[in-house]
Specification:
The protein has 5 helices and 7 strands, in the order βααββββββααα. The chain is an alpha+beta fold. It folds into 2 domains: 159 residues, no CATH class; 39 residues. It has a 4-stranded antiparallel beta sheet with strand order 1-2-3-4, covered by helices on one side. A 3-stranded antiparallel beta sheet has the order 5-6-7, with no helix packed on it. The relative contact order is 0.13.
Amino acid sequence: MHEPLARYAVRTPAWVWGGLAFAAVAIALLAWRALPLLGGHGVVTLGLFALIALLPALTVWSSAPYRVGGASIEVYADRVEVPRAWRGVQVFPLKSLRIARVRILQSVTVMDVPTGVKLDRGEVATFTADGLGSRRLSDRVFVEPGSLQFLLADLAAVSNGQPALGPVGWVALFDELEAVVREKRPADARDAQLEAQLDEELRR
């Protein structure tokens, strides 16, 4: 078996497990409170059954982009292997791979009144390929922040016959470029004057 060209470490964030546990407790309390009503028959009973059955399904479905049932995303010369939400991986051939990206912003309301505050839930990338379904994945599952951008760059590079750098390689490259820019950036006269004044004040 060939070793992957690049490997990106992923994990399910702890807050996702906390949210699922909270939802499970809430559903259990709802079912317990509904028990006295379940002895009868009619629309109310059916509605409660439907609600109790729907809540866990919605909770699990909505958290899928933030859950990974594996330790890493692996890039090969002809494919990328992405962990499923629970167990196993989905394999997407690079020749037919398509990726759509969207940033999730959640508006905060109090008593149905908008507060103007928006919570950044991160960026979600949807991997699709011909006849293979799709996999939605949040950038919050990557162990190293910013790795989603590096992964997408590696996929584009490998598709064009170029080497993959992996997360360590991309970080090293950006650090090197930043050092070059810092070295070549001309000194600003006003900044130098302010630094001299600050040094003089500190010597007093």
